[in-house]
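Lab notebook, design round three. We kept the backbone fixed and only want residue identities now. Task for the bench partner: fill in a sequence for the structure below.
Input structure tokens:
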């Protein structure tokens, strides 16, 4: 990975910073999401930076489709243990939990292709409705879908009487378990609390009106979890601390993204049969955390075993034998 180290070093020198790249691969059939297992890995990178660099400025180059809300908060809190000067560099996708991480940065550098997203999460618990197409799976429930339903009833349909509202709520409970609804409300409160804590990492409590406006837009007012927030909208409408890249920085950030896209084959579906060795084993990376001091990759390893069914057909059974972060 000498080439990528050179690209990281170029940005470090240009910005007088320490760059950590976090690529959450979103390849079809294998992917990684923001999850608690990244925290010890980041700790090792940050310790290496502390022990080897005289500059404590941290730039996090981030690509992710999202993940765990509380991990986003914990990661930002960990980074601020090492610096008061934290920026996020966004070449392309920084969705959901990635957007939350970005809210914790005092500077957000976005390329022309850079995208944030709403932070309204889906809730999945044992109390969720069963997926009619898969009896072993549960249907995720969007927090904002439930609150939008309540808004529809009260504000759009103008149903205000206690008896009518009670009847409608009873119908809702017939289809969604009460404990699932309770979990939705807790998640609603949690996401707003986490977003506020992240913004307060670099904003003052005196800016509470602006903070609440940012949270309201990211949780309620964009109306679709798939909405893509461009750098212009993030800067001019949401009033986030967004800066545009100059041409050289844009090129360098995009070159890093292109390198990881090719290395992890993000644009190709993962088909295990195409990667097996003569023993039927395969290995594939689907995430990277990298600085100039070390490289950690999220690895899937497995074996494909061929078996014959009673009717004579041959089937391939894919068994995952290991998945997790490895220093490489």
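Proposed sequence:
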């Amino acid at each position: 990975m000498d080439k990528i180290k050179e690209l990281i070093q170029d940005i470090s020198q240009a910005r007088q910073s320490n760059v950590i790249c976090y690529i959450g691969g979103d390849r079809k059939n294998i992917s990684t999401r923001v999850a608690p297992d990244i925290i010890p890995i980041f700790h090792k990178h940050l310790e290496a930076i502390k022990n080897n660099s005289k500059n404590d400025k941290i730039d996090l180059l981030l690509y992710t489709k999202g993940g765990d809300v509380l991990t986003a908060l914990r990661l930002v809190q960990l980074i601020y243990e090492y610096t008061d000067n934290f920026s996020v560099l966004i070449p392309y996708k920084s969705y959901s939990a990635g957007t939350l991480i970005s809210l914790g940065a005092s500077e957000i550098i976005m390329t022309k292709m850079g995208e944030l997203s709403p932070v309204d999460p889906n809730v999945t618990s044992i109390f969720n409705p069963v997926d009619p197409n898969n009896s072993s799976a549960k249907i995720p429930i969007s927090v904002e879908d439930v609150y939008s339903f309540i808004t529809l009833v009260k504000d759009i349909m103008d149903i205000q009487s206690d008896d009518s509202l009670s009847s409608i709520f009873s119908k809702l409970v017939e289809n969604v378990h009460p404990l699932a609804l309770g979990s939705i409300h807790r998640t609603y409160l949690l996401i707003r609390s986490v977003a506020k804590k992240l913004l307060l990492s670099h904003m003052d409590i005196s800016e509470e009106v602006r903070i609440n406006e940012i949270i309201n837009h990211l949780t309620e007012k964009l109306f679709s979890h798939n909405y893509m927030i461009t750098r212009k909208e993030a800067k001019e409408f949401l009033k986030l601390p967004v800066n545009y890249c100059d041409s050289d920085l844009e090129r360098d950030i995009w070159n890093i993204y292109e390198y990881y896209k090719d290395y992890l084959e993000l644009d190709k579906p993962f088909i295990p049969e195409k990667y097996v060795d003569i023993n039927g084993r395969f290995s594939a990376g689907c995430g990277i955390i990298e600085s100039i001091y070390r490289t950690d990759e999220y690895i899937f390893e497995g074996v494909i075993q061929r078996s014959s069914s009673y009717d004579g057909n041959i089937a391939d059974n894919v068994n995952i034998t290991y998945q997790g972060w490895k220093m490489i």
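Keep this in mind before ordering anything: Residues 131 and 137 are 6 Å apart (CA to CA).
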